[in-house]
Design a protein that fits this description.
The chain is of the alpha+beta class. It has 3 domains: 75 residues; 174 residues, no CATH class; 49 residues. Helices cover 45% and strands 26% of the residues. It contains 10 helices and 14 strands. It has a 7-stranded antiparallel β-sheet with strand order 7-6-5-11-10-9-8. A 4-stranded antiparallel β-sheet has the order 1-2-3-4, covered by helices on one side. Strands 12-13-14 form a 3-stranded antiparallel β-sheet. The longest helix is centred in the N-terminal third of the chain and has 27 residues. The chain is flat, with a radius of gyration of 25 Å. The termini are far apart.
């Protein structure tokens, strides 16, 4: 009889414990995250750095024999060799994502978020809800066509976790259409993702193109002067940055409602940041001579982050939009 009473008490205790919302990442999504993370560029850079360091340790005769053998190969063989190396490095990037985010889980408690991750080494992180200043949705060039995104939060005050980045990863990869569902479960306070944005005007396009093309134009001029043979490669670089400038223009915009300012912009990755009005620390409107002639201005929002403040720009907005945002914040 006593044993039955104990079992009933245990069952009642379990039944009384609240069911906290939680999300996990399965292995298939982790493979997608690794394959679309864009980390291959970083790995190639690290590979080149390591090779440059060990190059001096390679005996001269081995280096010369290897170089002569590579030069003796046909172009097709070199292309295949480069592709094999790229695939291997890409695979290493995927493996790194599996190790880093394996067994990923996020749980929403009353006053904090609790994250665990790591396949080989388990890491834990607690994020107090009161220190969250903004929520961001990031899409890189690879993930955007597939409708994939990463969710992060901007944290105020001291360091969270082991890095001092401007933001803290909340979920490594998610379908864009499921972002609202995720926020509704984990951060319902921020479930205000808009579907329409007020974009910058067409006359802002030249500013976005000039800012993106400044460095490629300088490199092209120097190439024509000193090394004309590489101008074709720099022309490709010029076209890529031209596309980037247009993508920045197409992305830039904002949305406001009673509680949130949502800013959409692109440096390389497309970012959408939801900022509660009460978390905005400062605003600033900046315009120069050309802006004043065209009735344009840039709007800067400052919020707290880990180390200091983070500034978020909406560049070349209509002057009347800037005035509207200032009045909105004053209200």
């Amino acid at each position: 009889m006593l044993k039955e009473n104990r079992n009933l008490a245990t069952e009642e205790k379990v039944a009384q414990e609240p069911e906290y919302p939680k999300r996990t990442v399965n292995n298939r999504d982790l493979l997608i995250a690794g394959a679309t993370s864009g980390s291959i560029g970083v790995i190639i850079g690290l590979f080149g750095l390591v090779f440059s360091q060990i190059e001096n340790l390679i005996p001269d005769h081995v280096y010369d024999v290897t170089t002569r053998w590579l030069l003796a190969q046909a172009l097709e063989s070199l292309v295949i060799f480069a592709l094999v190396i790229a695939i291997i490095l890409w695979g290493l990037g995927i493996l790194g994502s599996l190790i880093k985010y394996g067994k990923f889980q996020i749980i929403r408690y009353e006053k904090e978020l609790f994250i665990t991750r790591g396949l080989l080494e388990k890491k834990q992180m607690t994020i107090p809800l009161k220190r969250i200043q903004a929520v961001g949705i990031e899409e890189n060039f690879i993930r955007q066509p597939f409708g994939l995104a990463t969710i992060y939060v901007v944290i105020a005050g001291g360091e969270i976790g082991t890095t001092a980045d401007a933001h803290t990863l909340l979920f490594p990869v998610i379908r864009k259409r499921k972002v609202e569902e995720f926020l509704n479960d984990i951060l319902p306070e921020y479930n205000q993702v808009p579907h329409h944005y007020k974009r910058v005007p067409v006359r802002a396009l030249p500013y976005y193109l000039v800012r993106s093309l400044l460095i490629p134009i300088i490199l092209l001029i120097l190439a024509f002067i000193f090394t004309p043979t590489i101008w074709i490669y720099l022309t490709v670089l010029f076209l890529l940055f031209l596309t980037l400038g247009y993508a920045r223009y197409r992305t830039a915009g904002y949305h406001v409602d009673d509680q949130f300012l949502t800013v959409r912009f692109r440096v390389f990755n497309k970012e959408t940041i939801l900022i509660p009005k009460k978390r905005i620390q400062a605003i600033e409107v900046i315009h120069h001579f050309l802006h004043r002639k065209q009735e344009l201005a840039s709007f800067k929002v400052s919020i707290l982050s880990k180390q200091s403040g983070r500034q978020i720009w909406i560049k070349e907005l209509e002057q009347q939009d800037n005035d509207y945002l200032i009045k909105w914040l004053e209200r």
